[in-house]
């Protein structure tokens, strides 16, 4: 029993191949972007926090006790920065919990010194805490953690979803553009098969290969139309050439043959030949015949 093969149109084949190629490019771009964006983002965040710590250290170092309290309140209200005294009994947890946080902590220690404390929680209060010292006094600085958040998975998913949607739409458009000449060729070929030899394809298309195919198809259609026309003319000519002697034979038979039986048989043979000629004429007659009324008096007058 012959196996049934799954029929896959050229459009869907082209669409699938283009989709796979472009989706692979999208995912490669996303991974490359994430790899290239990760370290610069961590370094930039660490530089901002280090600058904030240095400014805070310099400002607090120059202020007296009363002004220091006012300065701490101002920083907390306007910059979302909390500065608290660091006590020996403070409970804190290291900030390093993933690759991004480790990169930030390493960059902070490289800019503020190896003894810098970087914590994600101090006495149960979460955030980014940096421990620094002014003279012999220790302080905790809590920065706004939202400034350090990397691109969230939801944002990545949205970007990738938009890229995939654009890829699929683009693949469908390109596949349709590629397959349009083939659809035109298939439609024109079906019309030729139905006997409509006036079907033609565009010979001014920009694609050279498609233009050559269209020119070859049009040349074939013209040759087929000429062959069909020559066939019709030849059959019509043969039929006309045969009718004249047959008419003469019928006349001679009616006038010269006296035997009624022989005359009847000859008339039947001539009628049979006439029927064959009628079939030739029907075969030679074009399929699309448009009948129009004609005023015979005007034709006769001309």
What does this protein structure show overall?
- This protein has a 5-stranded antiparallel β-sheet.
- The longest helix is centred in the N-terminal third of the chain and has 53 residues.
- The chain is of the alpha+beta class and 302 residues long.
- It has 2 domains: 141 residues, Sensor histidine kinase RisS, periplasmic domain (Beta-Lactamase); 80 residues, Helix Hairpins (Orthogonal Bundle), CATH 1.10.287.
- 67% of the residues lie in helices and 10% in strands.
- The model has no long low-confidence stretch (mean pLDDT 76).
- The chain is rod-shaped.
- Helix 1 packs antiparallel against helix 4 and helix 5 runs antiparallel to helix 6.
Outline the fold blueprint:
Blueprint: H1 10-62, H2 65-79, E1 82-85, E2 92-94, H3 99-112, E3 117-122, E4 125-134, E5 137-143, H4 153-193, H5 208-256, H6 260-284, H7 296-301
Antiparallel strand pairs: 1-5, 2-3, 3-4, 4-5
Give a brief description.
With 302 residues, this protein is an alpha+beta fold. It has helices spanning 10-62, 65-79, 99-112, 153-193, 208-256, 260-284, 296-301, and strands spanning 82-85, 92-94, 117-122, 125-134, 137-143.
Question: What structural keywords apply?
Answer:
302 residues; alpha+beta; Beta-Lactamase; 2 domains; 7 helices
Strand percentage, roughly? 5-15%
Oligomeric form of this entry? single chain
| Intertermini distance | 71 Å
The major sheet is characterized as: 5 strands, antiparallel
The assigned CATH architecture of the largest domain is: 2-Layer Sandwich
Into how many domains do the coordinates divide? 2
Count every beta strand, where a strand is a DSSP E run of 2 or more residues: 5
Name of the CATH first level of the largest domain: Alpha Beta
Question: How many individual helices?
Answer: 7
Uncertain spans: none
How do the strands of the widest beta sheet line up side by side?
1-5-4-3-2
Q: What letter string, H or E per element, gives the SSE order?
A: HHEEHEEEHHHH
Fraction of residues in helices? Answer: 55-70%
User: Which outline best applies?
Assistant: rod-shaped
Average pLDDT metric: 76
The CATH fourth-level homologous superfamily of the largest domain: Sensor histidine kinase RisS, periplasmic domain
| CATH fold-level label of the largest domain | Beta-Lactamase
Coarse structural class = alpha+beta
